[in-house]
Amino acid sequence: MEDADLANAGPKKSSPVIMIAALAVLTLIAGGGGWLVGGMLAPKPLSTEEARIVEEAKAAIALKNAGQRPESEAGKKDEGLPKIATEANGVVQLDAITTNLAYPTENWIRLEVALLFKGAPDVAMAEQIHQDIAAYLKTVSLQQIQGPRGFQYLKDDIEERVDLRSEGRVTNVIFRTFVIQ
Questions:
Q1: How far is residue 140's CA from residue 143's CA, in Å, rounded to a whole number?
Q2: How many CB atoms lie within 10 A of CB 111?
Q3: CA 5 from chain center: how many Å?
Q4: Backbone angles phi, psi at 48, to 5 degrees
Q5: Alpha-carbon gap, residue 92 to 123, rounded angstroms
Q6: What distance in Å separates the CA atoms of residue 53 and residue 59, rounded to the nearest whole number?
Q7: Of 7, 49, 147, 157, whose CB neighbour count within 10 A is largest?
Q8: Where does the pLDDT of residue 22 fall: very low under 50, low under 70, confident under 90, or very high at 90 and above?
Q9: 92 close to 117: Cβ distance less than 8 angstroms
Q10: pLDDT digits (tens, 9 = 90+) for 94-122
Q11: Sign (positive/negative) of CA torsion 111, 180, 152, 160?
């Protein structure tokens, strides 16, 4: 007789109180996890010294944009990276290289690099390296340089070519701009 009563009863319904309690517990766990991750990712507040430095930098930028210079920079000229070799820093900025890619030919690449020489810079060697990089870029296809891995391969190839051409005199190739259009 008990078996007949169980068969007629059908499946039991869950209590809404248990469902609400489970939902509340899951909500608290999710909120706590969000608070923990937010605390790990949020930037730390600036100290008073750091805030003062940031405000001074903003003021200097505002003065520079307005065409004025702060007193600390009044005697300095606006200088970028020198275009010619200087023995003081050993850096030679190459002229920008703009060329079309091998495939598709309607895509263009613009690359600006600087060379860091070990010892005194050699302008003639830098010009040969410039021509070598320009010739190499004409053989590259868009598929070869797509994405971060493609850019890394391109960078490695250029650094290897520079190392071979300079016979180890260039210690670093500094990529200033890289644009594909």
A1: 8
A2: 20
A3: 71
A4: -65, -35
A5: 7
A6: 10
A7: 157
A8: very high
A9: yes
A10: 999 999 999 888 999 999 999 998 888 88
A11: negative
Number of residues that this document lists for the chain: 181
pTM: 0.53
Residues 6+ apart with CB under 8 A from 141: 101, 102, 103, 104
Q: Which residue blocks in 66-146 are alpha helix, DSSP H?
A: 123-137
Q: How many other CB atoms sit within 10 Å of the CB of residue 18?
A: 9
HSE-CB of 177 using CA atoms within 13 angstroms:
13
Q: How many Å is the maximal CA-CA distance in the chain?
A: 105
Residues β-bridged to residue 110:
98, 179
What is the rounded distance in angstroms from the CA atom of residue 100 to the CA atom of residue 110?
9
Q: Which amino acid is at 146?
A: Q
Share in percent of the chain as helix, strand, coil (round to 5):
50, 15, 30
Neighbours of 62 (CB within 10 A): 10
- Give, as one character, the DSSP assignment of residue 97: E
